[in-house]
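Predict the 3D structure for this chain.
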Amino acid sequence: MKKLFGELNLTWKKTIISALVIGIVLGLIAQIPLLNDTSFTNSLVSFELWVLFGILIIMNSKSSKESALKCFVFFLISQPLIYLTQDVIEHSKLFLTYYRFWIGWTIACLPMGFVGYYMKKDKWWGLLILLPILVLLGFEYYRYLSMTMFSFPRHVLTVLFCIATLIIYPLYIFNNKKIKIAGVIISMLIILSMTGLSLAKPEVYATDILISGGKYRFDDTYKAYLEDNKYGDLSLQYEDNLDTWIVHAEFKKAGNTKVILESPDGKKTRFNISIKRNTYDIKEIK
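Done. Predicted structure below.
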């Protein structure tokens, strides 16, 4: 492990080839429907994997200037390639749609790579340079832990990756034992606080699943509920903009259950519903 953090012969040729391979491979992985909304495609929209690449480049550079330029060139090549690879396959203009998010971060690689190089000096202020990275990883950990709690086991690999890198970075970037210990303590505090936040405020998917009108007509005299309330709660609400009643859902967990719409006289209309993290499928049971 220590070899990765300062003992690699990371030439310009290897940096560019790595950027090309990583960009194309991640772009191809994004085309596999089975991997959508899993840890394998998270790196398209989040930072945890790119932080690792950036730190490996920084730790294996021979100067602050080289570190800045290699980080910049690596991201300048790899990030566009992900979306260009998808565009070639899908013709969906993903490059223009999504790469705009990463342009600013790619430019920021110049100062971040330059400053990040000084973590190699093994001084206390090097831990201050690392601190924003640890906090960023902490927020990514919180985000994906919340997603995993909602739709386990999706994103669990990203959660474990964030935990591992939060501990690994202070351990292997620094040689000074006191700095290592301080860094690990900070990382553990970040992990514990973000875990507590995830447990205190679990992810909720709020949406409207039925609208009164046409085949299904209902009002506040009806009842709406899930057969298994572990998946969330339903409520009848009046929507002023639509001038009608809706069944509003606040889902707490992904899975399959039944929606029951009960009239005042006890007649029940049942629906199968498949809940995902940000979408659902609902169909009446005949």
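The first helix runs from residue 12 to 29.
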